[in-house]
């Protein structure tokens, strides 16, 4: 399996993952329990979610128009699956990488999430199971770093 760089992994792990719920912004981090995410699970009647983006495939900076089209295709795929989603964003806390619009897809299985990750040529996604602890899952695609 191709390996992404340790530096890129560190960036993924340090990112702030935001979800825009009505009247609030929920922020969560890799490997850190999130009661707020579990509250969303209760609201939607689900036990899992995945934080996905179609921006910057393989962590290569990509033109805004291409990113927007990719993201629209991701939204269409999620809606075709009949799953609810909430808009979000992945934020680099030191500002070296642009904000990446994202989706928190509720009720998605790990396998379906990874299918979307690979389809949109992403290096990873954040999967959150019933424990409420977000984990970074790597796709096996290689990056340019």
List its salient traits.
single chain, 145 residues, alpha+beta, seven-stranded antiparallel β-sheet, 7 strands
How much of the sequence lies in strands comes to 25-35%
Based on CA inertia axes, which overall geometry fits? globular
What is the arithmetic mean of pLDDT? 94
Could you tell me the number of beta strands?
A: 7
* DSSP helix fraction: 25-40%
Q: Strand order of the main beta sheet, please?
A: 2-1-4-5-3-6-7
The Rg value, from CA coordinates, equals 14 Å
SSE pattern: HEEHEHEEHEE
Overall structural class, as computed from helix and strand content, comes to: alpha+beta
User: Unreliable runs, pLDDT <50, ≥5 residues?
Assistant: none
Tally of DSSP helical segments = 4
C-alpha end-to-end distance: 15 Å
Largest sheet: 7 strands, antiparallel
Give a verbal description of the structure.
By secondary structure, the chain is of the alpha+beta class. 32% of the residues lie in helices and 27% in strands. It has four helices and seven strands, in the order αββαβαββαββ. Strands 2-1-4-5-3-6-7 form a seven-stranded antiparallel beta sheet, sandwiched between helices. A hairpin with a 5-residue loop joins strand 6 and strand 7 (134-138). The longest helix is centred in the middle third of the chain and has 17 residues, at 64-80. The protein is globular. The two termini are 15 Å apart.
């Amino acid at each position: 399996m191709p390996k992404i760089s340790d530096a890129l992994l560190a960036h993924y792990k340090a990112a702030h993952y935001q979800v825009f719920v009505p009247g609030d912004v929920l922020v969560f981090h890799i490997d850190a329990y999130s009661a707020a995410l579990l509250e969303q699970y209760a609201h939607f009647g689900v036990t899992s979610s995945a934080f996905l983006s179609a921006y910057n495939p393989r962590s290569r900076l990509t033109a805004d128009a291409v990113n927007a089209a990719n993201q629209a295709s991701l939204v269409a795929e999620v809606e075709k699956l009949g799953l609810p989603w909430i808009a979000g964003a992945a934020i680099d806390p030191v500002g070296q990488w642009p904000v990446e619009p994202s989706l928190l897809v509720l009720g998605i299985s790990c396998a379906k999430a990874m299918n979307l990750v690979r389809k949109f040529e992403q290096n990873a996604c954040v999967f959150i199971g019933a424990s409420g602890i977000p984990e970074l899952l790597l796709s096996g695609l290689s990056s340019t770093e």
